[in-house]
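Hi all, posting the design record for the shared folder.

TITLE: backbone redesign
STEP: 1 of 1
STRUCTURE INPUT:
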């Protein structure tokens, strides 16, 4: 490969798509020599090009791309309806099992000419990647490339390299994969001046100096990364829409939006715009943005015609309204359904969606008020509106009731909305989990959220069933052919920026990869996803003078990932109370940073105890937003899980946890142990030095050394604070200041 490509492999730019050269390239499968793709669909051509690129990198020989049959082994790409050979490979029943974005892959040792009406000259093994649609074929290509890499790293056998015989034991590769979530979305919080709100990996890759970037190659490479893990929706600007970004829906910028849409369209990705609810006033000169005002509704209908004329396949609008000083329908005495439906009606003729964020709460709370509870807000605002939203409105709900803390319960709004379509919102960018200076693999946290049972329609009413649309109104599966079924899914705030390795901390790439894989299939385990990412990412970063070390490298890095969330929680937030961070930038320990704040994120620690009473008996009543048995579990300190105790209860420091420790001793122990375990992450990485390229080793080491030092700062600040508050000494007499 070129020097440029080698540099990319060594700095992390290619991420999990660098396709390292196989040390057994001469044994490449015969079917990797030719790609047969039929049809001029742009996404199909992307699939063929991606396959050609990956095979060339792995085997050192570029396969040919043909649009006509050949008489040698090959890979066939196509949709069931447009590619005759593809259709022949699968029965009608097998084709019907594939949904709109799913795929089937089959590898057979040979073709029997008597069984092929269209390609009777073909001899030898071949592989078929098929789907109902071109994006499904593209996702199948990325699966095939992952499969090949899994064999090429020496861990798994690579079959069907040259065999061809009349007898066969059946397919050597037979895969059916359908995405569980119809919408698999990434949200960007990018501003057009080039800044990124809650961005920790450099400036925006979309914008600079209030204009669209000129680096279209980087955007194309980003589209590759997203498509490779099944992402198909992308909002391209911050939900806090400032003045310049408000103009994205005007002639001034719509041609740029169209250029972005074209880049991502080639990878099966549909773009969305975050809009300013007050646009009729700021752009149109109206005196109101009242959703029930006919003039406002007409302004948005005209604007929708203009926007969709420029970008006919725009996914729709993302809206943050009446939240954190953003404008919205509350200003006019209207509710959220009024605002969302007015916009939805404007977009409906074009198939557009309104994604309406439920992050709405009173950010002018009096800290003296112990009854007002920010955690209650989303449920209190949106539950009464259940069933009032249009079919093209989707409510986007954060995974917890607060704001992406390292530990908080699942939002009770999920499941409570039984007649409304919802998106689950995760945060890949590590705002409260170390800001990509600390290692914190978030897939285990997301798995806990997805597996949580709301019991809203009886046992089995899990978050993953609710947000996939597969939980019907009576608890039975919804029909995939229903209109609403496609308006469910998962969205997440991205963690990428203009840093060369995309995420600042190289190991933070695992969160972007893991999010995409989990959105496609929530049944994948955190271990499986970590294993995939490490193998794909570090297969090419191993120092080429130290071959054969992957058996040590893969499990070591995987363990670092799998331990990291628990480690970060240990030296930061005790028992679910959270928020002990410096205000505004949210980095570093500040126990009382928000304690007297209007933002409503309190721990209520005094000399006697700590925690927030959210019970129905004596507290804010938040617990009552859950169904039984979850509400019953959270209501009592006897049954509340230790890790959430202080989120739901105010208890004395001497309260004994299920673990047998007191609250205060748990705080001391976890913070000492967490800092020690953070140092162990660094030490593990140091032990891998001889197995890694130097540039990769150095950039990760710098982050882990910072984490080691910062974890000690967290330990000492938290422990000292609670020692001084409680006056209770550490049983192990460790240094507390």
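Okay, here is what came back for every position:
SEQUENCE:
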């Amino acid at each position: 490969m070129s020097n440029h490509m080698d540099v990319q492999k060594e700095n992390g730019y290619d991420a999990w798509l660098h396709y390292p050269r196989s040390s057994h390239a001469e044994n490449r499968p015969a079917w990797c020599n030719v790609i047969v793709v039929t049809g001029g669909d742009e996404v199909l051509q992307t699939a063929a090009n991606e396959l050609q690129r990956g095979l060339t990198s792995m085997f050192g020989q570029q396969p040919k791309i043909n649009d006509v049959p050949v008489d040698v082994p090959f890979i066939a790409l196509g949709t069931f309806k447009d590619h005759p050979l593809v259709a022949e490979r699968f029965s009608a029943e097998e084709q019907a099992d594939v949904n709109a974005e799913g795929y089937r892959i089959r590898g057979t040792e040979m073709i029997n000419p008597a069984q092929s009406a269209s390609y009777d000259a073909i001899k030898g093994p071949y592989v078929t990647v098929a789907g109902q649609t071109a994006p499904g074929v593209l996702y199948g290509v990325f699966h095939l490339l992952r499969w090949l890499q899994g064999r090429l790293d020496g861990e798994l056998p690579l079959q069907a390299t040259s065999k061809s015989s009349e007898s066969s034991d059946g397919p050597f590769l037979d895969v059916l994969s359908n995405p569980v979530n119809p919408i698999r979305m990434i949200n960007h919080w990018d501003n057009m001046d080039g800044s990124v709100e809650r961005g920790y990996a450099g400036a925006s890759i979309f914008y600079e100096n209030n204009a669209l970037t000129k680096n279209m190659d980087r955007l194309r490479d980003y589209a590759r990364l997203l498509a490779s893990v099944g992402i198909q929706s992308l909002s391209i600007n911050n939900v806090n829409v400032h003045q310049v970004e408000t103009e994205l829906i005007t002639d001034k910028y719509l041609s740029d939006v169209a250029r972005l849409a074209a880049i991502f369209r080639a990878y099966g990705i549909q773009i969305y715009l975050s809009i300013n609810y007050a646009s009729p006033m700021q752009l149109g000169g109206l005196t109101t943005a009242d959703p029930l005002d006919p003039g406002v509704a007409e302004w948005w209908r005209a604007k929708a015609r203009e926007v969709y004329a420029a970008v006919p396949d725009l996914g729709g609008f993302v809206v943050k309204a009446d939240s954190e000083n953003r404008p919205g329908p509350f200003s006019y005495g209207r509710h959220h359904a009024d605002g969302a439906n007015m916009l939805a009606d404007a977009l409906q003729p074009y198939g557009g969606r309104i994604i309406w964020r439920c992050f709405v709460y009173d950010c002018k709370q009096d800290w003296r008020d112990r009854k007002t509870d920010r955690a209650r807000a989303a449920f209190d605002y949106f539950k009464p509106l259940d069933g009032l939203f249009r079919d093209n409105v989707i409510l986007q709900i954060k995974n917890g009731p607060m704001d992406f803390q390292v530990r908080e319960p699942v939002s009770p709004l999920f499941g409570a909305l039984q007649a409304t379509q919802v998106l689950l919102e995760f945060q890949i960018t590590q705002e409260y989990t170390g800001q990509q200076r600390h290692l914190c693999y978030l897939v285990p946290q997301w798995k806990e959220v997805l597996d949580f049972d709301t019991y809203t329609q009886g046992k089995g009413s899990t978050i993953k069933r609710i947000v996939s649309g597969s939980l019907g109104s009576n608890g039975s599966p919804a029909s995939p052919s229903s209109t609403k079924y496609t308006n469910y899914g998962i969205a997440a705030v991205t963690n990428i920026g203009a840093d060369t390795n995309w995420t600042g901390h190289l190991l933070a790439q695992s969160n972007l990869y893991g999010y995409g894989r989990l959105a496609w299939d929530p049944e994948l385990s955190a271990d499986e996803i970590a294993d995939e990412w490490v193998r794909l990412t570090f297969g090419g970063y191993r120092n080429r003078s130290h071959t054969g070390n992957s058996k040590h490298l893969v499990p070591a890095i995987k363990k670092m990932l799998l331990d990291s969330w628990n480690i970060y929680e240990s030296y930061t937030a005790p028992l679910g109370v959270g928020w002990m961070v410096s205000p505004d930038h949210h980095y570093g320990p500040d126990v009382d940073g928000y304690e007297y704040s209007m933002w409503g994120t309190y721990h209520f620690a005094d000399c006697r105890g700590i925690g927030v009473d959210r019970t129905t008996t004596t507290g804010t009543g938040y617990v009552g937003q859950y169904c039984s048995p979850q509400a019953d579990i959270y209501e009592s300190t006897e049954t509340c899980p230790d890790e959430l105790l202080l989120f739901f209860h105010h208890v004395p420091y001497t309260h004994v946890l299920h673990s047998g420790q007191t609250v205060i001793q748990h705080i001391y122990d976890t913070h000492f142990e967490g800092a020690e375990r953070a140092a162990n992450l660094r030490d593990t990485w140091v032990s891998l030095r001889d197995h890694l390229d130097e540039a990769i080793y150095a950039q990760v080491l710098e982050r882990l050394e910072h984490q080691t030092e910062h974890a000690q700062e967290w330990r000492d600040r938290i422990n000292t604070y609670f020692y001084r508050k409680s006056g209770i000494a550490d049983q192990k007499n460790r240094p507390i200041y």
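COMMENT: The longest strand covers residues 74-79.
Let me know if anyone wants the other runs.
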